[in-house]
Design brief:
single chain, alpha/beta, Rossmann fold, globular, binds adenosine-5'-triphosphate, binds magnesium ion
């Protein structure tokens, strides 16, 4: 059976973008692949986090995974920082990664622009991500378009390591919802919708109350002209709404364009809002049942035991190949 992995950072309540780009995909894959899903808490601290808030975000993210339809029987679910091998493996990989490569990463360029006092963790983030992926010899990494570059880097690092030290890693491939699926900010549709965004109007979070979700969608920035047509370059706002509709309805872009051919932007917004609200209500109901139950702890105990065993073996193999032994 092929293996797939993904992780989300506990940097705030997950967005519709995370849901469509990552979680919904994992829900689909759990029936066909051996699935690994983790909370990327070590990644989240590359940007300063309030400790209390972080701990609560970790728990909330786990409950959301389950509420969104992730089946703990079909996934290895774990918290990244509980598996000590990830950071160790990351160091060994870091010493096989070039400064120049990391300097070219778009996410680093974007996030380091936002805060000039950025940490070195923000810079080496993609190597830790490579460690998360390569540790488990996964075939696929389920990511949104924004993370494709990091998966490509993980491949480059793995190929280089294998060439230098022998066959250690499987070369993974990015697995994306649809070529191009990236949900954009509702206020600024040229920017991706992000969990850590500071403008609440542009971001839909799965735990937002549904009235405010409706308002945000109705108030989404649209483009000049009247036509409802998929054209991300010239009509980023409308294209984003079409993308959301497509992702939640299972229809194709062509079908959606056809449905709204003679309609106004307002009608598209209303239909998108209905779809989103419907799905979110269901998730929130399940979330409220799970968040205060004991279920999460049991799942994490199983997940960490399983993944630590695999990671330990990979770490020992790497060390041996590199000459780090008695
Ligand atoms: P942050 O702003 O803290 O980086 P984020 O919203 O980018 O948060 P991540 O935890 O970095 O979320 O990413 C989790 C997963 O969600 C990744 O697979 C990523 O590709 C996907 N993802 C993030 N944003 C979007 C988006 N706007 N559209 C589609 N997929 C997305
Ligand atoms: Mg991100």
């Amino acid at each position: 059976m092929k293996k797939v992995l993904t992780g989300l950072q506990p940097t705030g309540v997950i967005t519709l973008g995370n849901y469509i780009g990552a979680i919904k995909q994992m829900v689909k894959y759990q029936d066909i692949y051996d699935s690994y899903l983790f909370v990327a808490d070590l990644h989240s601290i590359t940007i300063p986090q309030d400790p209390k808030e972080l701990a609560s975000n970790i728990k909330s993210l786990l409950a959301l995974y389950l509420a969104c339809g992730i089946d703990p029987k079909k996934n290895k679910i774990f918290i990244q920082s509980e598996n000590l091998y990830h950071a160790n493996i990351s160091w060994l990989l870091e010493c096989n990664t070039y400064f120049g490569e990391l300097s070219r990463m778009t996410q680093f360029k974007d996030k380091s622009q936002k805060n000039k006092n950025f940490t070195s963790g923000l810079f080496t983030y993609p190597v830790l991500m490579a460690a998360d992926i390569l540790t488990y010899d996964v075939d696929y990494v389920a990511v949104g378009l924004d993370q494709k570059q990091h998966v490509e880097l993980a491949r480059d690092i793995a190929i280089r390591f294998n060439k230098k030290f022998g066959d250690v890693f499987k070369i993974p491939e990015p697995l994306m919802a649809q070529e191009g699926t990236k949900i954009m900010d509702l206020v600024d549709p040229t920017k991706k919708m992000s969990k850590s965004s500071t403008n609440p109007k542009g971001v839909i979070r799965l735990l937002d109350d549904v009235d405010s979700i409706r308002k945000k969608i109705m108030g989404a920035t649209t483009d000049s002209g009247m036509e409802i047509k998929y054209d991300p370059e010239n009509k980023p706002g409308v294209s984003n709404l079409i993308n959301i509709y497509v992702s939640l309805s299972g229809k194709t872009i062509k079908e959606v364009e056809e449905m709204f051919k003679d309609k106004k932007y307002g009608e598209l917004k209303k239909e998108v809002a209905d779809l989103v609200v419907n799905e979110v209500l269901d998730i929130q109901k399940k979330y409220n049942e799970i968040i205060n139950s004991d279920e999460i702890n049991k799942i994490l105990d199983d997940g960490i035991k399983y993944t630590c065993e695999i990671a330990k073996k990979k770490f020992e193999l790497m060390k041996n190949k590199m000459g780090l032994h008695r």
